[in-house]
Amino acid sequence: MVAVMACVLLNGIDEMPSGPHAKLLRVTVVADSRETIDGLHAYFQGAGVAAHTMRALRDASAIPPATTAIVLFPDEFDAKEVATRITSLRTTRPRLLVVVVTSTPQLFRSALEPDEQSLLPIVLPKPVFGWAILDAIRAHAHTEAP
User: Fold this and answer.
1) What does each C-alpha distance from 14 to 8, 9, 17, 122 come to in angstroms?
2) What range does the domain containing 81 cover?
């Protein structure tokens, strides 16, 4: 198992921030599957989260600047290319939360290891429900709040 595999449990968080001081979440979903993209986009929008979708992970400049988290389904792409892109994202956008949903986290180990500059990626096992992804992102936003 990858050392950075993280399961976000909300047992210690009584409520998520809301109101004018709540951190606005903007999520970009990257997946090859149209069903995955459409389903998560609809779920996030219904939950009040601004969502953007992409069918490929190009360079960091393709991700909207206001994005606070990227949800990546890497199993649908070339593993070596994905690892390169994750590393690039973590270098160029160190405050961007990277959420990786995969059944093979070991393929991306080098890109997911802790570093001194960027946020530690969250790795969730595939398959996973949209609410679990959103809970992980919100839990992280809650811990990052001032």
Assistant:
1) 14, 12, 10, 21
2) 26-144
Identify whether the C-beta of residue 88 lies closer than 8 Å to the C-beta of residue 110: no
Residues shown for the chain: 146
pLDDT at 102 > cutoff 80: yes
- What's the CATH code of the domain at 38? 3.40.50.2300
- Residue 130's contacts (CB-CB under 8 Å, 6 or more residues apart) are 39, 40, 43, 44
Domain count, the chain: 1
Half-sphere exposure of 138 (CA within 13 A, CB side): 21
What tens digit of pLDDT does each residue of 23-73 get? 589 999 999 999 999 999 999 999 999 999 999 887 677 889 999 999 999
Strand partners, 69: 27, 97
User: Which amino acid type is present at position 137?
Assistant: I
The contacts of residue 87 (CB under 8 Å, 6+ apart) are 110, 111
Rounded Cα distance, 77 and 26, in Å: 23
